[in-house]
Automatic annotation (TrEMBL):
First-level EC class: hydrolase
This protein's UniProt keywords: Amino-acid biosynthesis, Cobalt, Diaminopimelate biosynthesis, Hydrolase, Lysine biosynthesis, Metal-binding, Zinc
Family according to the record: Belongs to the peptidase M20A family.
Pfam assignment, any one: Peptidase_M20
Domain named Peptidase M20 dimerisation: residues: 173-281
Pathway annotation from the record: Amino-acid biosynthesis; L-lysine biosynthesis via DAP pathway; LL-2,6-diaminopimelate from (S)-tetrahydrodipicolinate (succinylase route): step 3/3
Reaction equation(s) it catalyzes: N-succinyl-(2S,6S)-2,6-diaminopimelate + H2O = (2S,6S)-2,6-diaminopimelate + succinate
Needed co-factor(s): Zn(2+); Co(2+)
Source organism (scientific name): Lederbergia graminis
Record's protein name: Probable succinyl-diaminopimelate desuccinylase
Length: 382
């Protein structure tokens, strides 16, 4: 029999917080979890995504239902470390909070999933079904890891999915998509005393971006849960000398999409408008740098109902059930699933805390989610 003590749980968390899995170091987190699974006889598999980045998949049980549980191993950069009250890569407890980069987003959630797997296996508690643990790489930078898992078929037979992203008081069952475009306008350099000898790359790009902004943000389509699509131009670079006509201007934009106005339609609108500009002598090119579709499910499932009950039991919170503007790996993992698919994002931590200096997770919630996850699995598989 194995029941992890709170001390052990803190040691594991401290170990993985110490791994600086900011871009490309997730492999060390994967190796750490793999070793932990090995110790308890759970087979796990490193799934390479790029030369340096990997996912980790582990499985226990057999047959139905197949429950997918997922979390990402990467964290965002700590930023200016001197702004932190304690070292971001040393788990530090103050006032019932556990501080460190990734405590909240989302190593506490990820670790709980892994430890629950081990207890279920070790104590023979899982009577029916399969639990597939999927730890991903690169969630924070476009979801390359989850895309690979989807493409390799790891989601094909999955019947429930939850992502342990931080959201301890709200179960998220739908979220917007996210689309990044890089738009390059090519002109021709000239001296600014004779602009007609060149072609100013900035002018058409400015007009184009404002036109797109008006068209997209002015669109009236609305999702009942996610509201409207939003688009923002977030980067604009051009020119290098004040008396030269710029030969190149590059802008980047981010669009948060909804099922009624999806990534493909947005890309098409951008392309069509660029073609129209180009017919008038501009040279505007579109590059899609990231495309994650929105996730829309009904939120009506045994899983969500049970998770809400367990939230009351272990957190003493009235968990709300909502849609969210943020994206998760579910954008990739749920490709081709319909709206009746039971999905949720529910985990220790607060969504608003993600990516902040002095990131923390409440110790009490870290421990509580272990029990929530375990009972949830037992409830869905009994
Ligand atoms: Zn996250």
């Amino acid at each position: 029999m194995k029941y992890f003590t709170e001390e052990e749980k803190l040691t594991f968390l401290s170990d993985i917080i110490a791994i600086k899995s900011v871009n490309e170091n997730e492999i060390q987190v994967a190796n750490y979890l793999k070793a932990l699974f090995d110790e308890y006889g759970i087979e796990s598999k490193i799934v390479p995504v790029t030369k340096t980045r990997v996912n980790l998949v582990a499985e226990i049980g057999s047959g139905h239902p197949v429950i997918g549980i997922s979390g990402h191993m990467d964290v965002v950069s700590p930023g200016d470390e001197s702004e932190w009250s304690s070292d971001p890569f040393t788990l530090t407890e103050r006032d019932g909070k556990l501080f460190g980069r990734g405590t909240n987003d989302m190593k506490a959630g990820l670790l709980n999933l892994a430890l629950v797997m081990i207890e279920l296996k070790e104590n023979n508690e899982l009577k029916n079904g399969t639990i597939r643990f999927m730890a991903t790489t690169g969630e924070e930078v476009g979801g390359a890891g989850s895309k690979k898992l989807y493409e390799d078929g790891y989601m094909d037979d999955v019947e429930y999915l939850w992502v342990a992203e931080p959201s301890h008081d709200t179960i998220i069952y739908a979220h917007k998509g996210s689309l990044n475009l890089r738009i390059t306008s090519i002109g021709e350099a000239a001296h600014s005393s004779m602009p007609h000898h060149g072609y100013n790359a900035i002018n058409p790009l400015m007009a184009y971006l404002l036109e797109m902004d008006e068209k997209l943000n002015g669109d009236n389509r609305k999702n009942e849960v996610l509201d409207k699509l939003v688009m923002s131009t977030t980067i604009f670079n051009a020119g290098n000398q004040v008396n030269s006509i710029p030969e190149k201007a590059v802008a980047e934009i981010n669009v948060r999409t909804i099922p009624e106005f999806d990534n493909e339609e947005v890309i098409e609108i951008f392309r069509t408008a660029a073609n129209n500009y180009n017919k008038e002598g501009s040279n505007i090119n579109i590059e899609v740098t990231m495309s994650l579709p929105s996730v829309f499910t009904t939120g009506q499932s045994k899983m969500v109902t049970l998770a809400k009950e367990l939230g009351k039991k272990y957190l003493d919170l009235d968990i709300s059930i909502k849609g969210s503007p943020g994206v998760t790996d579910a954008s990739n993992l749920l490709r081709n699933k319909d709206e009746n698919f039971p999905f949720m994002m529910f985990g220790p931590g607060e969504t608003k805390m993600a990516h902040k200096t002095d990131e923390y997770v409440y110790k009490e919630y870290y421990f509580a989610f272990f029990h929530i996850y375990k009972e949830l699995i037992l409830g869905l598989t009994k």
